[in-house]
């Protein structure tokens, strides 16, 4: 059963049609590369899946059941997590502090609640170990590399036992070595059976980890096919309009 099915998703902002009847399906443990030029509708589609706003028409189905999200917390409750391009991390907190922000482990001794720092640190260490990341629980985020920051953001999704992770340009503006680290993190999530939607302008990264690639142009899906049956040249043509459909 697909973890996510989008059926005829359209989104209008007044007279502007941001998306027009987009269909997509995603299996557990599958990586879907979502590509398109600026303004193609990628971010709008991700925001609909993440519960930022509802579609104008169409249906979202999670594990065979139609769902309606009114706010992001509704999507998170159903196992959908987002790793934003800016990562949404607090530079003044440790890795552990960021992972458990808003989800702290605490012991209640009436009438007080005390944070259980060791339990959170130990759990953060376990998550980094599962990702084979060198990030340490007590490291301050402001001192981290781009790859380490991604590890913190991805660990946060694992803490909530996500079924679907939406990743927005995770390899933008980081070094070649850090890109390799992030791609390895994506593979680790895939190995855990987590479905991933990867938005990226970096063609080599998409072809390195994605099972399928979908291309949006002017709010419409113009192609969806396995990466093994496509090429960077074909996808570039689809993005620019040199190739109309595939």
Helix content: 25-40%
The CATH superfamily of the domain at 4-93 and 164-240 appears as P-loop containing nucleotide triphosphate hydrolases
End-to-end distance: 25 Å
| Strand coverage percent | 25-35%
> Shape from CA axes?
globular
Q: Going across the major beta sheet, what is the strand order?
A: 6-9-10-3-11-12
Give the structural class.
alpha/beta
Question: What is the CATH third-level topology name of the domain at 4-93 and 164-240?
Answer: Rossmann fold
Average pLDDT for all residues = 92
CATH class of the domain at 4-93 and 164-240: Alpha Beta
Total E-strand runs: 12
Domain ABC transporter: 4-243
InterPro entries: AAA+_ATPase, ABC_carbohydrate_import_ATPase, ABC_transporter-like_ATP-bd, ABC_transporter-like_CS, P-loop_NTPase
Family: Belongs to the ABC transporter superfamily.
Protein name: Monosaccharide ABC transporter ATP-binding protein, CUT2 family
Chain-wise SSE layout:
Layout: E1 4-13, E2 16-26, E3 31-35, H1 42-49, E4 57-62, E5 65-67, H2 72-77, E6 80-83, H3 95-99, E7 106-109, E8 112-115, H4 117-131, H5 146-159, E9 164-168, H6 176-191, E10 195-199, H7 203-209, E11 212-217, E12 220-226, H8 232-240
Helix pairs in contact: 4-5, 5-6
Short description:
This protein is an alpha/beta fold.
Description:
Belongs to the ABC transporter superfamily. InterPro entries: AAA+_ATPase (IPR003593), ABC_carbohydrate_import_ATPase (IPR050107), ABC_transporter-like_ATP-bd (IPR003439), ABC_transporter-like_CS (IPR017871), P-loop_NTPase (IPR027417). Keywords: ATP-binding, Nucleotide-binding. Residues 4-243 form the ABC transporter domain. The chain has 246 residues and is α/β, with parallel strands linked by helices. The protein has a domain at 4-93 and 164-240: 3-Layer(aba) Sandwich (Rossmann fold). Helices cover 33% and strands 28% of the residues. The chain has helices at residues 42-49, 72-77, 95-99, 117-131, 146-159, 176-191, 203-209, 232-240, and strands at residues 4-13, 16-26, 31-35, 57-62, 65-67, 80-83, 106-109, 112-115, 164-168, 195-199, 212-217, 220-226. Strands 6-9-10-3-11-12 form a 6-stranded mixed sheet, sandwiched between helices. The protein is globular and about 60 Å long. The mean pLDDT is 92.
